[in-house]
Amino acid sequence: MKRSLSARTPASLAGLALSALSALSALSALSALLAGCTSAVPGPKAPASAPPATTPAATAPAAASPAVPSSAATAPSAGSAAAVVAASLTALKAARAVHVTISSAVTNGTITYSDDAAPNGGRQYITLSTGGDVTILYVGGVGYVEGDEQGLVGFMGLPMSEAQSLAGQWIAVHPGQGLGASSYADIVDGITLSSVASEIALADPLTLTAPATVAGQRAVGVQGRAPASQQLPASARVTLEVAAAGSRPLRETVVASGGYTSTITFSDWGESLSLSPPQHPVAPVASPPALA
After folding, report:
1. How many Cα atoms sit within 13 Å of 77 on the Cβ side?
2. Residue ranges, the chain, pLDDT below 50
3. CA gap 118, 208 in Å, rounded
4. What long-range pairs does 213-217 form, CB within 8 A, spacing at least 24?
5. Residue 4's closest CA among 100, 97, 86, 104?
6. So what's the pLDDT on residue 162?
7. ω before 278 within 30° of 0 (cis)?
8. What is the pLDDT at residue 285?
9. How far apart are CA 87 and CA 66, in angstroms?
């Protein structure tokens, strides 16, 4: 799922077109969801049937990127800031694989995404601080979804009756199909490296920030706005911090009105990721006719 709030909350699912973070109305929708998620539902867990991933064994070589002048932070220009962002997105899309963690907070709870992204697939665990979890596996062009009742209702927009019958099972969603209020595109967006790159892109105006150290690495920061496609509040300010050596993205932070904050971190570059379809997946309830 994308990181726009709209694709991850029931109210915004109605207007979805992963993406899963959205406008000010979506912030209030997420708050309502978090406030209402107090029933006794098992806490977040990785499903026992989820295909295993091996531990990182090697790190892919960093993609070549434009050098960032040491004086850039004191004399920023729109061109140099744009170059930093462009080099970062290029490095991300050229990676073998990377682990992405997204933690978004509103006034009464948090929502966390733990992703392993590869060029042509990936896996994403979504958990709510007050209960409810969903796992999305994207492999072979198919989106597989597994979750508990609360996660399927809250994240995927399923009616409770359907969530009860599908909870704990892998659900195979093919192109042209949907699950609850989520289309196939909604489900698989934000999982591959290229789609993650589109989510951390910045819109003008761009400015360089003061140098910083992130995860032990010297970083160059760029502040800007989120692209309109992310459906974040107009008040949102986004800062992307990029490794000065190698141009890999290290962290992105989003701050908006209404108590909303989000932090995205990147780690385990070049991790060895094993993805395979789950056994015996079921079809979505009331799925559309198969494409010819």
Report:
1. 7
2. 5-78, 287-292
3. 29
4. 214/241, 214/243, 214/250, 214/251, 215/250, 215/251, 215/265, 215/267, 217/243, 217/244, 217/245, 217/250
5. 104
6. 95
7. no
8. 73
9. 7
pLDDT of residue 55: 35
Summary count for the chain: helices (H), strands (E): 7, 14
Whole-angstrom distance, CA of residue 25 vs CA of residue 22: 8
Query: What are phi and psi for residue 252, nearest 5 degrees?
Result: -130, 135
pLDDT value at position 227?
86
Distance CA 184, CA 187 (A): 5
**Which candidate, 290, 279, 292, 286, places its Cα nearest to that of 137?**
279
Nearest to 144 by CA among 109, 111, 174: 174
Q: Which one, of 283, 261, 113, lies nearest residue 190 by Cα?
A: 113
pLDDT per residue over 12-40, tens digit each? Answer: 322 222 333 333 333 334 444 444 443 33
Give per-residue burial for 42-52: e unless 16+ CB within 10 Å, then b: eebeebeebbe
Side chain identity, residue 28: S
Confidence at residue 130, expressed as pLDDT on a 0 to 100 scale: 78
**Is the Cβ–Cβ distance between 177 and 170 less than 8 Å?**
no
What pLDDT is attached to residue 4? Answer: 52
Residues 6+ apart with CB under 8 A from 4: 12, 18, 19, 20, 21, 22, 26, 229, 230, 231, 232
Given this model, what pLDDT does residue 291 score?
45
Alpha carbon dihedral 191, 52, 266, 86, in 10-degree steps, equals -40
pTM for this prediction: 0.74
Structure tokens at 232: 């974040």
